[in-house]
Design a protein that fits this description.
16 helices, 6-stranded parallel sheet, Rossmann fold, 39% helix
Length: 436
């Protein structure tokens, strides 16, 4: 990894603005999954133990509407209010504002500050704004080893717009910018990249979470131990166009499962019935199959499939299924998981590997009846001695749900960021950091 980390700079007595990923799921004001908070703890503890002043910032969800000076009406809502008779406008405006204020409560990071205080065993001061009077006071009063958490960065309009004034103000709070939010490293927002891109901070480094993501994933892609097997699933080919193309050049075997397999099967001239097909990508699938042959790579597609009359509704509903050859799906049936012979074929391919990366389930894994293919692949990864890397998103959820998380070499914290890394893209949140 050629980017500097917090260990490469002197942090004692320095104010460190740390972009973390505290976008945690909440229910009734309570955090329901603390994984992202736990992922940030090593970096926070290191900075605290080494006498830094730690200012944390993160987004949380997608708040309804935010204006820099507070919560207000969107343009659409203003128009709707103005279209009403004068006597109804005040009441309508009040209703919209009530909704916005509910959002402010719903997306506040205050509960995270409370939980983080418990986990660190020390007070985390919560600033009620991002760059306002509360944040100013909280940062000004810091002593070495103190921790402040700023309010949700998306409460500032300038966050997603890369606003220079917002970046400049945040930069005034710190001597060092630290990015440890891999899950948002593919976004170029004010706190994820622009603050360093604009040159408002001279020292920009990564925390331990990003360091681990880069050293494991980037190294596996650049210098894999062969045989290198890539497993791709998920619904649409369109979502993984560049990933398929890039991985074909690096891996020895590319395994295709999930909904996108049916577009490949249709491209081969097979009958796929009512299965999900991305018709616009059939030509692309033909190109990729030709590319694999030309490069001497194996491209494995399902040889049998699990079919049903319709998609389960709700997603975990009991459903009647059967198996058939991948080239003979009845016209009124749809493929919803790989079949048992395919599961065996894919598991065997994984077991021979020295490096495996996996992104995307093999079927509708949220339904126990349609999770068998995903379970078979996860089990094969858990039993191999290979370096096994799970590229975030649904694959990470599946592995955790199935109880195999501790058997994997690395489970990425960022689905979108992992995919872009697999595509060979440069991530703004990484590119903006100082080189070693």
């Amino acid at each position: 990894m050629n980017k500097k980390s917090i260990k490469d700079v002197q942090v004692s007595g320095k104010r460190c603005l740390v972009r973390v990923d505290f976008n945690v799921p909440m229910k009734d004001g309570k955090i329901t999954d603390e994984n992202r908070i736990n992922g940030a703890l090593p970096t926070i503890k290191y900075l605290v133990d080494n006498g830094a002043k730690v200012i944390l910032c993160s987004h949380m969800g997608k708040p309804h509407n935010v204006l820099t000076e507070g919560f207000g009406l969107t343009k659409k809502e203003k128009k709707a209010v103005e279209a009403l008779p004068a006597e109804q406008q005040a009441e309508a405006k009040a209703e919209y504002l009530k909704k916005a204020l509910k959002d402010k409560e719903k997306y506040s990071l205050r509960p995270v500050a409370v939980r983080l205080s418990e986990l660190l065993g020390k007070e985390v001061v919560f600033a009620e704004d991002v760059v306002g009077a509360s944040a100013d006071a909280a940062v000004a009063n810091m002593k070495d080893g103190d921790v402040v958490l700023l309010e949700n960065t998306r409460f500032e309009q300038g966050e997603e717009k890369r606003d220079e004034a917002l970046c400049k103000k945040l930069a005034s709070y710190c001597d060092i910018y630290v990015n440890d939010a891999f899950g948002t490293a593919h976004r170029s927002h004010a706190t994820t990249a622009a603050i360093a891109e604009y040159g408002f901070v001279d020292t920009a480094v990564c925390g331990f979470l990003i360091e681990k993501e880069l050293s494991v994933m980037a190294d596996a892609l650049e210098n894999p131990v062969h045989p290198f097997v890539a497993v791709l699933g998920g619904a649409k080919v369109a979502d993984k166009l560049k990933v398929i193309c890039n991985l074909l050049e690096k891996c020895d075997t590319l395994i295709i499962g999930g909904g996108m397999a049916y577009t490949f099967l249709k491209a081969k001239g097979y009958e796929v019935g009512a299965s999900l097909v991305d018709d616009e990508q059939i030509g692309y699938c033909l190109d990729m199959m030709a590319k694999a042959e030309q490069l001497g790579k194996k491209l494995l597609l399902p040889i049998d499939t699990t079919i049903a009359k319709e998609f389960p509704n709700p997603i975990d509903a009991q459903i009647e299924v059967s198996e058939c050859g991948a080239d003979a799906i009845p016209a009124d049936m749809m493929g919803l998981d790989i079949g048992s012979k395919t599961a065996e074929l894919y598991a065997d391919a994984v077991k021979t590997a020295k490096t495996v990366i996996w992104n995307g389930p093999m079927g509708v894994f949220e339904n126990p009846i349609l999770a068998k293919g995903t379970i078979a692949v996860a089990k094969a990864l858990a039993e191999t001695d290979a370096t096994t890397i799970i590229g975030g998103g649904d694959s990470a959820a599946a592995v955790a749900q199935l109880g195999y998380a501790d058997k994997m070499t690395h489970i990425s914290t960022g689905g979108g960021a992992s995919l872009e890394l697999f595509e060979g893209k440069k991530l703004p949140g990484i590119e903006c950091l100082n080189d070693k």
